[in-house]
Specification:
By secondary structure, this protein is mostly helical. It has helices spanning about 1-10, 15-30, 30-45, 50-120, 125-165. Helix 4 runs antiparallel to helix 5 (about 125-165).
């Protein structure tokens, strides 16, 4: 009877190969953490088993690759958010630059009209003054149109950029 108990206890202890197969099976079913845990337990019982050692190394490498790809994906999401923020910031900067340029132009026009007024305040024609005022108004309108056109163009470029980014692969067109 003691031999039969000894035989049963021997049969209940998993072999190194069973740890290997169980770990490989868990890996196949995309359960990397459980596979690593199983192989690690097998290595604790059978530290000299080469199959378990090589499988453990491969599983650890796979785990590291998964973490690296996850980090890259997280960084890619952050970079996309940053690029959107940068494009908005750039648009705001361009708008402020154009506004400052138009203000400078207006101040130059004001300086010119003032210098013309100072040169000949009585000699100037009311129609000339009206034309000068129209030019100032026209430059404001043109500046606004330019700003709107630039904003629209930037929106279109961003849409195209996002479309190109999401397509990834080739699209196959029907050839009939």
């Amino acid at each position: 009877m003691p031999q039969s108990l000894f035989g049963q206890t021997q049969a209940n202890i998993p072999t190194a190969e069973s740890y290997f197969h169980q770990g490989a099976q868990q890996y196949i079913y995309n359960n990397l953490e459980a596979a690593i845990s199983t192989v690690k337990t097998g290595l604790e019982r059978y530290p000299d088993e080469l199959k378990l050692q090589s499988l453990y190394e491969q599983l650890k490498e796979q785990q590291q690759q998964n973490q690296d790809s996850q980090n890259e994906q997280d960084n890619g999401d952050q970079n996309e958010e940053n690029s959107e923020q940068n494009s908005e910031q750039q648009e705001n900067e361009e708008n402020s630059e154009q506004n400052s340029e138009s203000k400078e132009q207006e101040s130059e026009n004001d300086d010119q009209s003032q210098s013309q007024d100072e040169q000949a305040p009585d000699d100037s024609d009311p129609s000339e003054r009206a034309q000068a005022e129209e030019l100032k108004d026209l430059s404001k309108e043109e500046a606004q149109k330019i700003l709107q056109a630039l904003a629209q163009k930037e929106k279109e470029l961003l849409k195209e950029f996002k479309k190109a980014k999401t397509k990834g692969g080739k699209t196959h067109e029907k050839d009939w």
